[in-house]
Amino acid sequence: MASYLRVYPPCQEDGQVASESPATVRVRLADLLPLVALAHRQNYLWLQDFLDDEVIITDDLFEVLRAFRCTRPSA
User: Fold this and answer.
1) Contact between residue 49 and residue 43 where contact means Cβ atoms under 8 Å apart
2) Residue 36: inside a domain, yes or no?
3) Which domain range does residue 41 map to?
4) I need a labelling partner for 20 at 20 to 30 A (CA). Which of 2, 14, 35, 74 fits?
């Protein structure tokens, strides 16, 4: 006899819809950059799944990156 997949709606307590919590994992940039650079160099497909994700950076890093983008010599 074949088994059937049963799909149930998520549990809702007190009539409230469960919402996704925002990302809360903190990672040092020094730990993250080598991994992302390697995945980019090796063209890992999973990296493309995250290209539209937003990241939160500090104001001072944003200013440095913005200045770097504007003053970088063209090749």
Assistant:
1) no
2) yes
3) 28-52
4) 35
